[in-house]
Design brief:
There is one protein chain. The chain is α+β, with helices and mostly antiparallel strands. Helix content is about 20%, strand content about 30%. The protein has two helices and four strands. A four-stranded antiparallel beta sheet has the order 3-2-1-4, with no helix packed on it.
C-alpha cells in the first residue's frame, strides 16, 4: 500500500469509527481442551458476529465445544 492509498484510507475511516471485533466465543477441541479451533468475534458498532477458524483447512471443525469463558474452560 502506498502512502497516498494509506492517507485515503485514513480519511475514509475516522479512527473513532473503526469497528474492531471482540472475541466472545471460542471453539475448542473436545479431546484437547487447550487447543483452540476457532474464535467468534462480535463487532460493537454493527453487532455482527464473524467466526474465524484456525484449522488447517480454515473451515469449520467437525467436533468442537463452544465456550464463552476461556479462562475456566482451559483449566
Amino acid at each position: 500500500m502506498t502512502d497516498q492509498e494509506a492517507a485515503a484510507l485514513e480519511s475514509a475511516i475516522p479512527p473513532t469509527e473503526m469497528d474492531v471485533g471482540k472475541p466472545v466465543e471460542w471453539m475448542i477441541d473436545p479431546n484437547q481442551r487447550q487447543r483452540i479451533l476457532g474464535v467468534t468475534y462480535e463487532f460493537s458498532q454493527t453487532g455482527e458476529r464473524k467466526t474465524v477458524w484456525y484449522t488447517p483447512s480454515k473451515r469449520r471443525a467437525k467436533p468442537f465445544v463452544i465456550v464463552t469463558d476461556l479462562q475456566t474452560s482451559l483449566c
